[in-house]
Amino acid sequence: MWKLIRRAIATVPLIAFCACGSSSLGSDSDANSTDDGGGNSDASPARDLVSIAIEPAVVELLSIDGSKPEQAFTVIGTYSDGSIGPVLAPSFSIDVVAMGTVDSASGNFIANGVIAGSAVIVAEVSGITPAMANLRVKIEKTDIDPGITGDPAVLFGGTPLVDPLRAAEIVYPLNGAVMPQNVYPPDVQWLRGDVGDIYRIRFTKASLTVTKYVIHTGVGFGNHWQIDTDSWRSIAQSDPDTTGTLQVDRWQSATGGVISSPTIDMHVAAAAVSGTVYYWDVEAGRVVQIDDGTNVAVGFMPTPQQGCIGCHSVSRSGRYMAGRLGGGQNVGAVYDLTQDLSVAEPPTVFPITKAFQWWFSSWNADDTELVVTDLESNGNGVMKFFDPNTGVQIPKAGTLPTGITQPSWSPDGNTIAYVSQVDNWGGQMTTGNISVVDMSAADTVGPAQLIHTGSDLSGDVPGGTSDNYPTWTPDSAKLAFGHGSSARSEDGVSALYMMNPDGTEVSRLNNAVGGELANDNFQPRFSPFQSGGYYWLSFLSRRNYGNSEVGTSGAGLQQIWVSAVKVGSLPGEDPSSVPYWLPGQRTSSRNIAAYWAPRACRGDGEECTVGTQCCSNDCRPNEDGDFVCTPPDPDICNSANLSCETDADCCEGLSCSNDICLPGID
What we know:
It is a single chain. Helix content is 3%, strand content 39%. By secondary structure, it is mainly beta. The chain has 4 domains: 4-28 and 46-138, Immunoglobulin-like, CATH 2.60.40.1080; 145-269, Sandwich (Immunoglobulin-like); 276-597, Neuraminidase (6 Propeller), CATH 2.120.10.30; 611-663, no CATH class. A hairpin with a 5-residue loop joins strand 24 and strand 25. The longest helix has 9 residues, at 229-237. It is globular, with a radius of gyration of 30 Å. It starts with a strand and ends with a strand.
């Protein structure tokens, strides 16, 4: 059986394959031959099926406001005698199942009216090279707020005016932002408006146009439109991994004129950033969590009697969280995140003891060790190791580094990066370098190696001599870090950089931080997965999120942002992308210390919004109309960067690693 490849980007130029050959299928019999009684027959010569083609070979369908257009495909065969005719019992399939369904026997395709783009219809007959046809489904969706009377399209029918002082200037999403498909739908925010004004929000891709009309209703309107789930599903999954444009035009009720708005670019990668983000909500005084695809921050654990849980870290598996309790010389605790932690005194993995004290921590690859910085009585940060199941210190051969803070253990377990030569425990330090120790021998700490000196970047904006918060890419290939005059996100100045683990090829992440002069970006931390050809980097920034009505404009609050960072960037290249704001945060709070925890791909029958959330890569409505993960077609394999359960789900040459199909390492 010829096997289809499920592509992360479904753009296939082939229309049909034809090849010479013979098959008994489709050949004529001699049932119509005659015999004259003397043994002489007048039989027609047998003919064999040589090749097949699909008709029509190129199709474009248009869905309007959820309609489900259909197209019947047929197979025509070429036979060995040169004749052309229909073929019996071909089998049909489609390579992008998210766009609709094709009946395997009849060849009838039905678009679902939700996902637009390009696909390939494949017909198969045993022993014959498959035939292919190009299919394109275009979608036009329009939604009008109930408060608008008449047809708003008429109001926007004339030539719009260009007037920057009256235009509804888009302030979120940011121009050029890259988002994963499964992020909660963004809240489009703009400036300027009066009661009675009507806005046309339009998102376009090659095969998709989504138009929304909203009316300014007065106090509480907020100059924004929260994209609904259905519209976002169309935007995120149509024409995957291509850039679309967003525009907000304003019909001004006072003048009756239309003022155009500059368009912005927005790219939705064919990727899902799965998992949970645990971060510290400063005003709430506690660690909260946001699950992928949601916009709700959950306070899953009350404050223990010992005081707040600060400087937390999350294990590689996502099961455990380590945190320090109270103020002063902090006592450490470990919590099992699979347990109920909502009780008044949430249980710890091991009893709380003063023998387990630290400020910052990081987990090894299999959750069996914690590396910490223990602030000794002389104020000197010392690297130590603990068993997170018992709280007992683990002895190591070699020299444990001192004068350090903010350790970061590489995902492959071989190296620990940390900030060395510091002048403070980590909260207020103004000097710091990046060093590493080798951990490839389980019971030994290798000699310290200085890989980057903070003063080397003192000439950059924002200057300073403090390197801080090193973080590893999930493949342990790169390190990102902050640099500036201090690491304090409330009032310090800092930018973000990335480099090789030996300190070479240092690149400033200008796209992520907001340009060459940006100086309000802190605490980088990578997601544990790479997807869609990107690493996904969270960080803190005091930049404006949206407008002042529903966003944070003018408040100067550090919030969590996420940048897609290109895998395999070239030397000197800025691999980062314009970031998106992590949905679910309280816009009235300072938020810090974001840690990602992995979440496995979702199994068949589980609720989903996009296919990349599913182990099958297929999210479709069930009998009740609810979108759920659907079992994969056994004849379709998953290409690189798509999710998987086993190696068998992946195409040839790929293996299932951390639930993602990835090339093997030679």
